[in-house]
Amino acid sequence: MKARIKITLKNGVLDPQGKAIQSALGSLGFSGVNDVRQGKYIEVELAENNEAAAKDAIERMCKDLLANTVIENYSYELVA
Amino acid sequence: MKARIKITLKNGVLDPQGKAIQSALGSLGFSGVNDVRQGKYIEVELAENNEAAAKDAIERMCKDLLANTVIENYSYELVA
C-alpha cells in the first residue's frame, strides 16, 4: 500500500518559509494572497497490504520520526 | 478560497531526502518500507472567490515560483 502523508505546522506556529513565499509572490505581482503556509508531503510505499496494519505502522512512523507533534499536525490517506 | 498544493519530484529524479527517511525508518525498526519520496505541501489563502480565476492564479504561481517544472510535478485542489 501507499501512504500519502501531509505534515503541516500547527496554527499559531510561526512559518517563515510560508512568509517568504508570500512575499515572493507579492514581488512577482500576485496580489490578493492573504496567507501562505508551507508543510511537507511524504509518500511511503509499504509492503504491508492489510489496511489496519498499514495504518498502525504509518501512525507510529509519523509520531516517531516524520512529524514533530509539538508544533506539527499530520494527516494521511492510504491508497492500494 | 484556499488552495492546497502538492509538489512532488518527477519519477526517475533522485530523492536523497526520501532515501534518508527510508533509511531512518529502517534504523527505527520499521520493516517493509519499499520506497519513500518527499515533496512539498503548500497552502495558499487567496482573496479571490471566483474558482476559474483562482485556478488560473494558482497555475501561474506553481509555474513561476512554487514548482521547478523541469524536475517537479504539481497538483492542487481548491477549497472554498
SSE order and pairing:
2 copies of one chain form a homodimer.
Chain A: E1 2-9, H1 16-27, E2 33-46, H2 51-66, E3 72-79
List keywords for this structure.
homodimer; 80 residues; alpha+beta; Mth169, Chain: A; three-stranded antiparallel beta sheet; 3 strands; 35% helix; elongated
Concise description?
Two copies of one chain form a homodimer. Chain A has helices at 16-27, 51-66, and strands at residues 2-9, 33-46, 72-79.
Describe this structure in words.
The structure is a homodimer of 80-residue chains. The first copy, chain A, is an alpha+beta fold and 80 residues long. The first copy, chain A, has one domain (2-79): Mth169, Chain: A. The first copy, chain A, is built from two helices and three strands. In chain A, strands 2-1-3 form a three-stranded antiparallel beta sheet. The longest helix of chain A is centred in the last third of the chain and has 16 residues, at 51-66. Chains A and B meet through strand 1, helix 1, strand 2 and helix 2 of A and strand 1, helix 1, strand 2 and helix 2 of B.
